[in-house]
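Throughout our pipeline, every protein is held as a single compact record rather than as scattered files. Such a record has a labelled line for the sequence and another for the backbone structure tokens. The remainder of this section carries one protein's record, kept here as part of the documentation:
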Amino acid sequence: MTLLNLLIKVKTIYNIIRTQNRSSTVTTLLDWNTAVTIPWGVLILIGGRLALAYGFTSTRLDD
């Protein structure tokens, strides 16, 4: 699975959830109060790992 496929799947799930919650107020997956408490360092490490893995795969260094 490429990174692009993963992003497309996440966006599709986001759109499904957002469509099911249509009301007079806008609901989002992540509000500011929740975003402040997320350990962003861990997310950046995971993102870096995924980018590095994709780079190895796309240049065939993993063979």
User: Anything to note?
Assistant: The chain has two domains: 1-30, 31-63.
